[in-house]
Specification:
The chain is α/β, with parallel strands linked by helices and 226 residues long. The two termini are 19 Å apart.
Length: 226
């Protein structure tokens, strides 16, 4: 029977991990303080760990006041409580960025994958404006079971990587760029219209979604069925 915790303002899906292999994750942005704290408390009671995205410094301090072991990364906005920081990581996911401004979204993807048990190799600042940087790391990228390619501006990086590897590429457009990038829409359209094969695309700035899908692919490639 499906199980959820009714907090009146929220209904937390406690059986999600059993169904899908992943527990419920908290989208922190916009949540009222007491709602957020209550959600963390209930999920921690159930799983002894909680993973949250798009958290602020103030939200971290709030959760930290209740859970001393809470950990926050201001770059990615990840706010998590973990059972085991030294958990064994499986497989190999390469997370690549076109530029350093794309790192916040890339870190959301990378830390999502790591929380869910995947080994991640970060290959940052290898955009097409200096393609020799990418080519210098291509052997490392080719070792991965799946590649996450994060780019703003014109969003060309996933297409280039797609032509160099034989594994799936998850393209993540970011809202990095000048006016005509339309807050990531230009990169999104480039990625959707890529002529390279094996590319799938998530929403603008959706590092979490990319990390989740990459973990599913990595688990399958590593022979792990949850």
């Amino acid at each position: 029977m499906e199980n959820f915790a009714d907090l009146d303002f929220a209904k937390l899906d406690l059986s999600r991990e059993e169904r899908t292999g992943f527990p419920e994750v908290v989208f922190c942005s916009g949540k009222e303080d007491q709602f957020l704290l209550s959600i963390y408390e209930r999920l921690y009671m159930e799983h002894q760990e909680v993973f949250g995205t798009r958290a602020s410094q103030a939200q971290y301090e709030l959760v930290k006041s209740r859970f001393a072991e809470a950990n926050y990364d201001p770059v990615s906005g990840i706010l998590k409580i973990t059972k085991n920081e030294d958990k064994k990581l499986i497989g190999n996911i390469a997370v690549c960025t076109a530029g350093t401004a794309d790192i916040p979204v890339a870190e959301e993807a990378a830390q999502t994958a790591e929380f869910f048990g995947s080994k991640v190799n970060r290959v940052y600042d290898v955009g097409v404006a200096g393609i020799h940087r990418l080519l210098s790391r291509v052997d490392t990228i080719r070792e991965a079971n799946v590649v996450i390619a994060v780019a703003g501006m014109e969003g060309a990086l996933p297409s280039v990587i797609g032509g160099l590897v034989k594994v799936p590429v998850i393209a993540v457009p970011t809202s990095v760029g000048y006016g005509a990038s339309f807050e990531g829409l230009s990169a999104l359209l480039t990625m959707i219209n890529s002529c390279a094969n094996g590319i799938s695309v998530v929403n603008i700035d959706n590092g979490y979604g990319a990390g989740y899908i990459a973990t599913q692919i990595n688990r399958l490639a590593s022979g792990v069925v949850c």
